[in-house]
């Protein structure tokens, strides 16, 4: 979806016009001049974008190096540096001095955003998760707008399908077949997908691991995973009211034999990749691996005998 693409821009050249589809209160305007951020912060934000809320709740405890329940600026900078060192996408650019894409430390705007102008405030888990949520919402909104919504503000079912399958890793022929199926089914009764429904669906995806567990229970119990079941799971597990039309599009994509039942394994696998934006394999940021290593180390450690 173009997350690893960029244009070179020199703020000194004021005659250069930036076309950024950002609201005035965009988080990017708070982090950098003219809505621009440093490459180092790009790597950090990409990690924030592709890491689950639950993992960050664990990571926050890692950030809290002195155990006082909050994170100060020094602790944040140490962990931010560690995260970037673990990032494969950063490694791809780290030694490319000729492109100018090298690490130059944490942007002062980012630390100011978290810790105030004097850098003496504390960062709470609530503020960090609020930051993550706003970042995800802005990126999702930008992705949605890139599909050029129609006069009613909706994108087509095919556009929605392309966004869902962006990181599925399907062969072109299979992806083309799925898109043709969606276009065929909704050719005469297209309602499109609104931005609100699009954001709701991705809020649902933020709980995909819990959804996976719930759907597995249904499968073990021998119950079919039909449209009503998916709607119920979304409501009870993720607290999201998915529209009947969005569910209809999802089933058109993942109901291979058109028997009214969801192909659960494939749906979950594709949605997990979509949530992680293809960064787990082979472009893993390394952050989840870092958390898993710390947990393993903690389990294997034993307290010294007094």
UniProtKB/TrEMBL annotation:
GO terms for molecular function: calcium ion binding. GO terms for biological process: calcium import into the mitochondrion; mitochondrial calcium ion homeostasis. The keyword Methyltransferase does not apply. Keywords: Calcium, Calcium transport, Ion transport, Membrane, Metal-binding, Mitochondrion, Mitochondrion inner membrane, Repeat, Transit peptide, Transport. It holds the Pfam family EF-hand_8. Its main location: mitochondrion. InterPro entries: EF-hand-dom_pair (IPR011992), EF_Hand_1_Ca_BS (IPR018247), EF_hand_dom (IPR002048), MICU1/2/3 (IPR039800). It is found in: Mitochondrion inner membrane; Mitochondrion intermembrane space. GO terms for cellular component: mitochondrial intermembrane space; uniplex complex. Residues 51-86, 242-277 form the EF-hand domain. Belongs to the MICU1 family. MICU1 subfamily. This is EF-hand domain-containing protein. It comes from Apolygus lucorum.
């Amino acid at each position: 979806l173009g997350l690893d693409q960029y244009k070179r821009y020199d703020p000194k050249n004021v005659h250069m016009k930036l076309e950024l589809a950002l609201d005035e209160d965009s988080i990017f305007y708070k982090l950098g001049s003219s809505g621009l951020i440093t490459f180092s912060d790009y790597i950090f934000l990409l990690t924030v974008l592709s890491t689950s809320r639950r993992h960050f709740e664990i990571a926050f405890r890692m950030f809290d190096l002195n155990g006082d329940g909050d994170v100060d600026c020094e602790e944040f900078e140490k962990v931010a540096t560690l995260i970037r060192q673990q990032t494969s996408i950063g490694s791809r650019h780290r030694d490319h001095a000729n492109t100018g894409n090298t690490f130059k430390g944490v942007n002062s705007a980012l630390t100011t955003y978290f810790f105030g102008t004097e850098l003496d405030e504390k960062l709470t888990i609530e503020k960090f998760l609020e930051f993550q949520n706003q970042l995800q919402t802005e990126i999702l909104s930008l992705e949605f707008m890139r599909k050029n919504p129609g006069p009613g503000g909706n994108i087509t079912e095919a556009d929605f399908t392309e966004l869902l399958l962006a990181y599925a890793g399907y062969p072109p022929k299979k992806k083309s077949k799925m898109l043709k199926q969606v276009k065929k089914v909704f050719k005469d009764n297209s309602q499109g997908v609104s931005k609100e429904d699009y954001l709701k669906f991705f809020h649902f995806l933020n709980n995909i691991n819990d959804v996976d567990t719930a759907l597995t229970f249904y499968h073990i119990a021998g119950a079919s995973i039909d449209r009503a079941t998916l709607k119920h799971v979304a409501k009870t597990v993720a607290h999201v009211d998915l529209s009947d039309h969005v569910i209809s599009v999802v089933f058109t994509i993942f109901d291979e034999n058109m028997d009214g039942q969801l192909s659960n394994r494939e749906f979950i696998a594709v949605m997990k990749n979509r949530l992680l934006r293809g960064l787990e394999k082979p472009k893993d940021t390394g952050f989840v691996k870092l958390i898993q290593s710390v947990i393993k180390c903690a389990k294997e450690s034993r307290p010294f005998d007094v």
